[in-house]
Specification:
The chain is mainly alpha-helical. The chain contains 11 helices and 2 strands, in the order ααααβααααβααα. Helix 1 packs across helix 9, helix 3 runs antiparallel to helix 8 and helix 9 packs across helix 10.
Length: 303
């Protein structure tokens, strides 16, 4: 039971990093990103290939490479979609995630195709017991979440963050004020993608195995729900919302096991239904999330 709880906390931390990345892109800059799982998978594949197949580089190098290359991919996507809005932006970003999944499924030499990549090394895996490895990795993920949280907070409370919120609220006004809207969108999209890519790399080294079927759009929906329930635009809400979603996902697993007259497919559907109902109840009583965004107020210097 202890290992199970630690593993769930690890996944909650990974979800929290993804929610922080999404909060930068969507919560602060107003760009809808439904291709979140694509950047997550991209980071996982980059780190796995560099540390497992062909290269066998150190794990930290794989993590850094995953963040940097995912940031570059995010910048390229942002240059393509920065002038799109609403449904069009959502469709293009969703298409990117499907491209990553399809390439992973059909490319054999580097990604292993549908068989995926196995034997991905983890820090000190094999040198310590599984229980100790889980605790070590939980510490690594906790530090990664803390670092990402601090970076996102610095962005939020900086003049740069005020420009992002201005672009989110009315980019024409921000443009008239002399701000390069396209540059800001590309930059923040790249930073958010880097955080998501790093979370994907951490996932791959913890799970020791990645495959295309693990990067489905449903994961993006979970992260969107986490950010919405926690509070869009608030980094604290992003992390708390991720913990909430993981709690609902796992608690419903224990609830539905007592319903023995349903088929396995029906049980899975019921579980998703109950998760949705639970989050709807949260949003019913907290429409702006548990931690709604509050615009930072700066005191005016006295005369």
């Amino acid at each position: 039971m202890e290992n199970y709880i630690v593993a769930m906390l690890v996944f909650a931390g990974l979800y929290g990093m993804m929610a922080l990345g999404l909060n930068l892109i969507w919560g602060m800059a107003g760009m809808i990103n439904l291709g979140l799982v694509g950047f997550f998978g991209f980071g996982a594949y980059v780190s796995a290939m560099l540390t497992r197949r062909h290269f066998e580089l150190p794990i930290p190098v794989g993590w850094m490479a995953a963040a940097v290359l995912t940031a570059l991919a995010g910048a390229l996507v942002a240059l393509t979609v920065a002038r799109l809005k609403g449904d069009y932006l959502a469709i293009v970003t969703l298409g990117f995630s499907e491209i990553v999944r399809l390439v992973g499924s059909n490319e054999i030499k580097f990604t292993g195709g549908t068989d995926g990549i196995s034997g991905i090394p983890g820090p000190w895996r094999g040198s310590v017991s599984p229980q100790e490895f889980n605790l070590i990795y939980l510490g690594i993920v906790a530090v990664a979440v803390l670092v990402c949280f601090v970076i996102c907070q610095r962005i939020r409370f900086s003049p740069y963050g005020r420009v992002l919120r201005a672009i989110r609220d009315d980019e024409q006004v921000a443009s008239v004020a002399g701000k390069n809207v396209l540059a800001f969108k590309v930059q923040i999209f790249a930073v958010g993608a880097a955080i998501v890519g790093l979370s994907g790399a951490l996932y791959g080294h913890y799970n020791a195995y990645i495959a295309p079927e693990g990067f489905v759009p449903l994961l993006t929906i979970y992260i969107v729900l986490a950010l919405t329930a926690g509070g869009t635009g608030n980094n604290t809400g992003a992390v708390v919302g991720s913990l909430l979603v993981v709690f609902f996902l796992e608690s419903m697993r224990f609830v539905v096991q007592y319903i023995d007259f349903l088929k396995p497919v029906q049980v899975a559907a019921l579980r998703e239904f109950l998760i949705g109902i639970s989050l709807i109840v949260v949003l019913r009583f907290a429409p702006q999330g548990l931690f709604p965004e509050r615009t930072p107020v700066h005191k005016v210097p006295s005369a």
